[in-house]
Structure formats: structure tokens, C-alpha cells
Amino acid sequence: MTMLPAATEKKLGLLIDLDTCVGCHACVTACKGWNDQGYGAPLSDQDPYGANPSGTFLNRVHSYQVQPADGAPQIINFPRSCLHCEDAPCVTVCPTGASYKRAEDGIVLVNEDACIGCGLCAWACPYGAREMDADAGVMKKCTLCVDRIYNDNLPEADREPACVRTCPTGARHFGDLGDPLSAVSKLVAERSGYDLMPEMGTKPTNKYLPPRKKDRPDQASLLAPLLDIKATGFAGWLDKVLGKI
Amino acid sequence: MHPAPSVIIFTVLSGLGFGFLAFVAAGALPVSGWPAVVVWGLGYGLAVGGLAASTFHLGNPQRALLAFSQWRTSWLSREAWTSVITLMLLAPMALSDWLGLGLPRAMGWVAAVMCVVSVIATSMIYAQIKAVPRWNHWVTPALFGAFSLTGGALLAGQVRIAAGLAVVLALVLVLAFRLGDRQFAARGATLGTATGLDRIGAPEVFELPHTGGNYLLREMIHVVGRKHARRLRQIAVIFAAVLPVMVLAVLPVHIGIVVAVALHLVGAFAARWLFFAEAEHVVGLYYGMR
Ligand code: SF4
Ligand code: SF4
Ligand code: SF4
Fold this sequence. Notes:
A: Alpha-Beta Plaits; B: mainly alpha; globular; binds iron/sulfur cluster
């Protein structure tokens, strides 16, 4: 059903900390690995070891450089995956009902058995979160690891998205962004978490935490005092003599 | 956006077919007997052939019937319905013309209106997409409608109506180019808003997330070939709207129609190629290319 639910009981999603992400791409690999064996058609690769490799991924990490008005330039690593939008345009455009948003937790999914592979949903997503699988001819997107988070066969600690579980710096958080008391909502409130491209009117569930303001040391280097050495005694006399020659 | 040949052929031919069928259904061509079969067959052939071409870009065309299910929200689904309903509404008129049943022409008028509705539904598939600002404007349905009716009038040999419609088409085309060039900036999406990094400064791309190609780059970030856009815009306006009317004015009708429609189609294909190739998707911002 491509009608969006008026409200969802929970708003499960990711919170990505751009201050902490080091751009290691571990989440990209973990996501690809998990989704090669879990939900729906495996994410295929074309010409993986050849000259022109290409493949389907549900999560990609960009790197940007920013020159703040005051302070040193910064490199910011930027993971990009489905934001599980409240007003998801990808869902309403789907002609077959393959794309849908779950009323219970807000996760946006594709029923691959109903997908005709028209690609319209990928056009409708402003964030490039959907990729058509070239082998299966069906649309792939982040499932919020729906086959992990409710999976009783996994140990408790693993019942979170693969990308969150694997992130070595803890830059990815998972939780209910609709519950103001959840850990993720508190982080959003504390650190001014924000939406991507709010002008597109999609009301994303996922939020991003901005990079923290970097300290500006008052001195060029912590070692600076040590560099300003005044030679005394014999060394001072030698210094003076050598300076004159 | 990637200008996929199947989608360009689909939208141009089905638009022309429905435009032509609208004129035939409204009684613009008083045909009966076997000539009626040829005329109606041509209209159906163009419309249905165009729709068939659209299935070539599907990943799983064997499930295409499911596309009728989501008409409540999806313009693609609505387009499937309007096309089928229109083709069914046209059928009694076609039979009436062929066998001389004398059904009231009012039925044909209803079907003619539905032809236009089908073309508008097709255009809304593109016009609804906010992420492609150039398309997301009322000028898109106006453009598709003008192309369909002008082509239809030319093919039906309605010289005067075609001349009037061609003027409209030329104006809408120029308007679509002009408005379209401003739409992306007007939407306000930048790399800064796409990443939220405008909070700390102006971001620039440092490294791409992958060294090879991917679906997004192939499908939505089509940057090659735009360098001929200016020339193609001129070709589109001159061939689609100006030359056909001049040809119809000087050549005898029968040969004139063939030449005029051929010229019009050259312009229509150029315009439709540009419609895709010039459309920039906001996802290109993340990659620093549009
Ligand atoms: S990020 Fe894109 S694919 Fe995900 S819900 Fe939003 S619009 Fe749909
Ligand atoms: S590609 Fe599949 S999921 Fe996307 S709009 Fe088409 S049918 Fe729906
Ligand atoms: S939640 Fe799961 S599917 Fe989504 S990006 Fe993370 S690992 Fe991939």
C-alpha cells in the first residue's frame, strides 16, 4: 500500500554523528555483508574484479571539506543511507504497492515480489538512497536491518543494525526518534541534530549531529616555548662568534 | 537524468498517438470503411506501441499488471488506468466509423477528452518529482499536452488548428526552457543543505564514496552531452513547431502531412531528449556534479 500511514507508533531510525565518523567505510562493508545473505535479493556486483566494477550498496560514505569562517579547514565524512522519511515521496509514487512505510515502526521497505523495477521511487528520493539491483531488477534500499532488530535468534547485543553494530567509533546510533526520552532523541536535543534537505518536505526520521566546533589553540604549537632557546656560557660565546663570521 | 531511449520513444509516440486519436474521435477526419481501419489503426498503433516501449525499461516487466493497483497515490498507476480506459472508450467510435454504425459523435468527444487526460497523466509522472526541480512545474503538463495536440493535428491534416497549436507549442517550449533554467536554484537545495554542513561553512567534495560507477551516477547524474543543448533547443522549436506549419502551407495536403509530421517528430525527439538530459536531480549535489 503506497498510502502513507497518518502516524507511526514508533519512528525507528539512525542518528549519525558527523563529529565522530572517521570515514573508515566499515558500515558500508557491514551493510553490504549483511544484506548479501538476509532480506530479499542479495546485493549484486557487476565486474567486481575487472576494469569497471560497479555494485549495489545501501549505504555510502562521502567525504567533504569545509572551510569555516573562523578556524582551520575540516574534513567531514558523511554516511548516506535511507532516512526513513515520514513524508516519503518514494512510497507514494510506486505504482505497484511494492514500496511501503510500516505503521508500527515507520520503516520504509520494498516488497521485492511486487516490484516491477520501474525506478520511479529512486527518482523521487532526493537523497539517492535507493539503488536498482542490476541482477535482480528490483529496487534495493536500507531496511534498517529489520531482519536483525527484531530477530530473537541473535544475541541481544546484535539486535541492532549491522552498520551501527560495526562502527568502530560509535558514530552511528539506532533508536526511536519519535520518543523524546530515547537516547537518540536526547542526543538530537543536546547537540542540535538536524534534517537533510528540509526544503524537500520529506520529514526525514534519521538525523545528523553536526561536527563540533574545533578548539583554536592560542599558540602555534605546544612546543613553541621550547623553540625559543637562549644559549648561555660557552655555547653562548660560540653562538656569538659564529654569528659574526 | 539519463535520457533512456525507451522512455523517450514511449512518451513521444504515445503522445502523438493520443493526440491523433483525439482528433479522429472528435470527427475531424470523416472516414468510413477500410480507410477508417487504416486511420484508427495508425492511432492505436502509435499509442499502444508507445506504451509497449515503456515496458522495456522495467526490471521485471512480467509483473507489469501490478502497476494498476496504486492509483490512489501513484501517477504511474493512474496513467496505466487512463490509458486503458481511453483506449476502451475509443473502441466503439472506431467500430462506428468502420462499419457505419452511426454512434453519436458526443461519445467521440468524451474519448477525445480522455486522450488529453492520458497525456497529462503521463506528464504528471515527471512533474510530481520534487527532486528534479526542472520537471516539478505546471509547464511540464503544458508541454506534453501541447506536443500531443500539435502532433495530432498535423497528422490529422488539420492545417489551421495545427498552425494555431504550433504557435502555442513554440511558446510553451521556450517558456519551459526559460523557467526550467531557474528551477534548480529556486528550489534552494545546495550541497550545504544536502549535508547540513552549511552550518559550519561552505562544503566542497573531497572524496567520492566509490571509485567505480553506480546506479545513481548512471540513472540520475547524466552530465554528458549537454554541451549541444543550445543547438538542440533551436532544433526542437524550429522542427517541432515552425517548419511543419510552413510545409503544410506550401505543399499539397497528402504529401504535406507526411513531411510535416516527419519534421515535427525530429523536433519532438530533440525536445524530449533535452527534457531528460537537461533535468538535474538533487542527488547530484552529493557527488558535486549535476
Ligand atoms: S530517504 Fe529516500 S528512500 Fe528513504 S524514505 Fe526518504 S525518500 Fe524514501
Ligand atoms: S521500482 Fe519497484 S518499488 Fe520502486 S516504484 Fe517501481 S515498482 Fe515501486
Ligand atoms: S540499517 Fe542495515 S540496511 Fe540500513 S544502512 Fe545500516 S546496515 Fe545497511
